[in-house]
Amino acid sequence: MTKVPSLVQMMSQLIGSPSISCSQASWDQSNKGVIQLLESWLSSMGFECKVLPLPNQPEKFNLIATIGKGNGGLVLSGHTDTVPYDEGRWESDPFKLTERDQKLYGLGTCDMKGFFAIVIDTLRDMDLSNLAEPLIILATADEESSMAGARALSQQAKWNARYALIGEPTSLTPIHAHKGIMMDKIRVTGQAGHSSNPNLGRSAMDAMHEVMTELMSFRNELKQTYRDASFVIDYPTLNLGCIHGGDNPNRICGKCEIEFDMRALPGMSNDALFNAVKQRLPTIAERTNTEIELSSLFPDVPSFSTPKESDIIKACEELTNNDAETVAFATEGPFLNTLGMETLVLGPGSIDQAHQPNEFLALDQLDPMQKVIKGLVERFCTQRQ
Fold it and tell me: Does 228 qualify as catalytic in the annotation?
């Protein structure tokens, strides 16, 4: 039987198993090593483990580990992948857990491999032999890129679990809602020609100027029309992220592309936003005699919201002494809600440390998070709801 290591030893092994997910193939890695570690530890504790390859991605896996029978219960969920790292900007090896200044450093310490180590360390000191309702540990793939792991799960039959906690770094503050996100591209195709005579071509860059003007007008309309006071940035945003076009000063620009993101408030439709942009483009294309195409860079992530009256929200507010809040960053929350669970986001560490060189998890976050996990299991798994 596999012996479950200490919390720090578990975290060290998880950090030491690289599992970067990225849209760039040169960075992208399998998460198999992390899944195998989690499966071995949880199996030794009596969990029934299912390792599920992602459709069309045989080297990417989800793990569903269950203990207890019946309907209801609790899911403790996290992602097994990390973002890429900035080589040369770390003060220590990003794949070697390093302790200094009361902090644990390493790629994924707070976002979010450390969460799994905390969960398993907490559960092995609890009696899970006769749960009233099941406890499920969910570990997903590719959250940092396509969210393909959570998307695959959301296509399956509705789960029987009632509540779910996603252990993303929130500084132990319960999060009940976040904005959606969509990343799109507009390509303008004109006709290149000699710059000495504008009639020899059709400038894609000139047309893109009109496209950008229309996008900024739409951005202002969104700001004026939709508000949600529970968010720090209380309106939907549209960010013009990057633009590429042309190849030489003395040539009329034949092609130009802009990439942008939109972040919708809960209750708004990503599809409706996409179509609203799309409907504004044909007039510009006709006026400028160019071709204009709108496409998605990645599958969108819906906005997420769980009512603050939910039992799991109220339980986590009590366990942390923090009121539930909202955030702008996206999580797997909407996909778990789709599976029929009342979901919140709450975890150790700060989002300010995520995706940064010298990512760390402060040691003073460990005990409070273990208190939350223990309290939720006792409330939603050891007592019949």
Answer: no
DSSP assignment, residue 181?
A: B
Beta-bridge partner residues of 105: 98, 360
**Active-site entry in 143, 144, 210, 300:** 143
Question: Of 81, 121, 228, 300, which residue is the catalytic one?
Answer: 81
Non-local CB neighbours of 88 within 8 Å, separated by 6+ positions? none
Q: Read off the pLDDT of each residue in 131-135 and give the average, rounded to a whole number.
A: 96
Tens-digit pLDDT profile for residues 187-214: 999 999 999 999 999 999 999 999 999 9
Q: Which residues contact 103 (CB under 8 A, 6 or more apart)?
A: 360, 361, 362, 363
The answer to whether residue 143 is catalytic is: yes
Percentage of residues in the chain having pLDDT higher than 70 = 99
Return all residues near 261 (Cβ < 8 A) that are at least 6 apart: 181, 182, 183, 184, 237, 238, 239, 241
**For residue range 272-320, what is the model confidence (pLDDT) as tens digits?**
999 999 999 999 999 999 999 999 998 999 999 999 999 999 999 999 9
Query: What is the crossing angle of helices 204-225 and 270-278, to 10°?
Result: 140
Helix, strand, coil content of the chain in percent (nearest 5): 30, 25, 45
Locus of tokens 């940064």: 356
Q: Where are the alpha helices (DSSP H) in the chain?
A: 7-15, 32-44, 113-123, 148-154, 204-225, 270-278, 281-288, 311-320, 333-338, 366-380
138's tokens: 């969910």
Look up the pTM and report it.
0.91
